Amino acid sequence: MDEPTSSLSIREIDYLFAIIEELKSSGVAIVYISHHLEETFAVADRITVLRDGAYVGTWSSHALDVDRLIRLMVGRDLSEKFPKELAPRTGEVLRVEGLTQGTRLRNMSFSAYGGEVLGIAGLVGAGRTELARAIFGADRIDAGNIFVDGKAVTIRSPRDAINHGIALLTEDRKQQGLVLKMSTGQNITMAVLGRLTRGLFTNSRKEHELAQGYMDSMAIRASSQDQLAINLSGGTQQKVVLSKWMATQPRVLIFDEPTRGIDVGAKVEIYKLINELARNGVAILMISSELPEVLGMADRIMVIHQGQVAGFLNREEATEERIMEMATGSSMANSVLAAAMAASPISSLSERIDSSDAAPTAQDNAHE
Amino acid sequence: MSESTLVAPTERGGNVFGRVISALGPLLVFMALFALLFAMAPAFRKPTSWALLMLEASAIGLVAAGQTFVILTGGIDLSVEAMVSFSGVLAAILISGSNVAGGQLALGMPAWAGMLIAVLAGGMIGLVQGLIITGLNINPFIVTLGFRSILLGVALVATRGAGINIGRGPFVEFITSNVNVGIVRLPMPLIIMVVVYFISWIILRQTKLGRYTYAIGGNETATRLSGINVDWYKMLIYGISSLFAALAGVIVMARLQSGAYQNGTNMTLISVAAVVIGGTALSGGVGGIWGTLVGVFILRIVEQGLVYMNVPSNAKEIVIGAIIVLAVALDVIRRGEVRWLRFNRRRTA
After folding, report:
1. I need a labelling partner for B127 at 20 to 30 A (CA). Which of A108, B41, B120, B218 fits?
2. Which value does ipTM take for this structure?
3. What phi, psi does A164 have (nearest 5°)?
4. Which pLDDT belongs to residue B98?
5. What per-residue confidence (pLDDT) applies to A319?
6. Which residues contact A229 (CB under 8 A, 6 or more apart)?
């Protein structure tokens, strides 16, 4: 089974695990591939670790814990899963006032500051991605004003957004982030090719230098700039997309699920790049379904519920429970969730709140 | 020119041998066909038949160059053959008048002016097609098919089904002449075509328009989200396709000294076939202009070979059709898009 739970809800995962148990007891050998480490411990008797295409070893799952497994996977000690650095907060960079789009986004207002990572949490369908796309000009808005560095800006297209220093790293890098059949270098320079054009023609030398600069500084593991993006690993692809946006020198960088589907080592590299951007005074909006990631990396968390801002939490006061309480919009739903979490064989699966069906009322409403 | 611009870089990558083969494959096929015909048909051994081959390739070559741009973006232009006829008819009318009113009304426009206007008008019509495709988000298949009908209809009405003849002025003389390049005599239409291929190559390689052509074909959504005005560039692409087809139209008209609605017959299918044989993916994003040129010559030599082999001209269509289907089939197999024929499945992370 290759990442069998990637699109399943908690209830379905439980069901899957029950089937796996059944198959096991009837003598079927199961190879279970996953990047969700907790799942691996819940399901596996023995765990084999591969790294960079090489066999590292096989251990009984009782002989391992998550930290040890991560060390084996990345081949070095990870001091922390989330290497958060607190950057000094500068002035307000982005202000959104009364942003409205049909019933998906309703009168949303908030600010983001330079040097700050603003985490955005909420259930699936709460409007997180819609918010990002609306700010970036990818979808039309019905009402609302956007200010960058205090100045009102009109954004009707992604081009407008980029010109005003806003960038969006989309949640689906293969469908929306990369042109997979093009080279790594061409993907990096995609959004700034106009800047590399003199008169009619693109300047190949400058383009090559710019791409090579990001290849080096971001440690992009590709054989050369000419390697096609399709042949890169998930983490490397994400760094290519991030390079593309860094080349536009953004003031606001919106990350939509920045570490989805990439391995532990690459996640930490992405987090470190987020730190670096914050240090350079960029305002960062980080949408994530993984609550530990939001708690680990955000300075401040904005929780969204049914297209509205449900509230803000500071880094010190934020917990999974408080976020879920706001995200579901009722304490009743919260207790249902808690019960569901208790019933789940793997409590840490609650970090994937987007696939949680534990708060049916809130979710159904949000899908209207 | 590197191999990656000559023909598609294969998605498999890495395997240098495979890449060279896929880049040179069409060229090897052409050389094999040439050798075969040289051995089997004595009539083909004269340089005059080669000159004929080159002359025959030039009009369809121009059309296929424009078609390459469109197919690289993942679209298709079915209006090109009608554009060839239309621009020829328009130029002929501007030069020597319409026969609709019964008898030729000589407008007396100089040949060069009439042809220039016809080519520019063709380009404009292409832009309009592009505007409809992008602005109203209609499938290019439908829009260009509709324009094919419109343009053919206009050509038919304006000529009443008969060709409009033009006189043999110095300009017509010039663009149908032969030019001595070193020791060989090359037909002027061929030289025009080669120049257009070089311009196309530079556009695809060294301009924003070219880069975005590949990007749109590779992933239109990601291109749009990178801040690129996809609609604008797609409109330009359909303009280029029509412009090149209109240029082919006036050249054909000058050669025949007649603008007739049949001038472009079959050119759409052959141009698409040439593009695909040349290694450009019908799904867009991968390919190049030089492959198309080789594709044009392959199709032309097959057609000429059939004549030398005394295959009745009515049966020619069967062979050409079969080649087209075969070329597309080989294309999808080569790209590993046929599940049951995929031997080494490769995972990407």
Report:
1. B218
2. 0.82
3. -95, 15
4. 65
5. 84
6. A178, A179, A180, A181, A182, A183, A184, A187, A237, A240
Distance from C-alpha of A185 to C-alpha of A209, rounded to nearest angstrom: 10
Chain A touched by B2 (CB under 8 Å): no
Which ranges in chain A are annotated with CATH 3.40.50.300? 80-165+250-368
Q: What pLDDT is attached to residue B128?
A: 97
**B177 in reach of chain A (CB within 8 A):** no
Q: Looking at A257-339, which runs of residues are DSSP E strands?
A: 283-287, 300-305, 308-314
Average pLDDT, chain B: 84
pLDDT score, position A330: 57
Q: What is the mean pLDDT of residues B317-345?
A: 72
CB B247 within 8 A of CB B119: yes
Among A159, A181, A237, the residue with its CB nearest the CB of B229 is A159
* Per-residue confidence (pLDDT) for residue A74, from 0 to 100: 67
- 3-class DSSP assignment, residue B63: helix
Q: Cβ contact (<8 Å) for A202 and B206?
A: yes
Mutate to test the interface with B, among A190, A206, A208, A241 (most CBs of B within 10 A): A190
Token pair for residue B92?
């002929």
Domain at A80-165+250-368, CATH homologous superfamily: P-loop containing nucleotide triphosphate hydrolases (3.40.50.300)
Give the pLDDT confidence of A311-346 residue by residue, as tens digits.
999 988 888 888 888 888 755 444 455 555 544 444
Q: Which domains does chain B have, with CATH numbers?
A: 48-336 (1.10.3470)
Alpha-carbon span A189 to A200, nearest angstrom: 17
User: Which residue in B202, B222, B348 is closest to A179 by CB distance?
Assistant: B222
Quick: pLDDT tens for B192-224: 999 999 999 999 999 999 999 999 999 999 999
Cα–Cα distance measured from residue B87 to residue B340, given in angstroms and rounded to the nearest whole number: 46
Please identify which residue in the block is written with the tokens 């390919």.
B287
Token pair belonging to A302 = 């904005």
What pLDDT does B48 receive?
A: 78
Residues of A in contact with B228 (CB under 8 A): 159, 190-191
Mutation site, A172, A180, A181, interface B, largest B CB count within 10 A? A181
pLDDT in tens, A122-146: 888 889 999 999 999 999 999 999 9
Q: Establish if B229 touches chain A: CB-CB under 8 angstroms.
A: yes
pLDDT of residue B209: 95
- A179 vs B349: CB contact, 8 Å cut-off? no
**Nearest chain B residue to A236, by CA:** B349
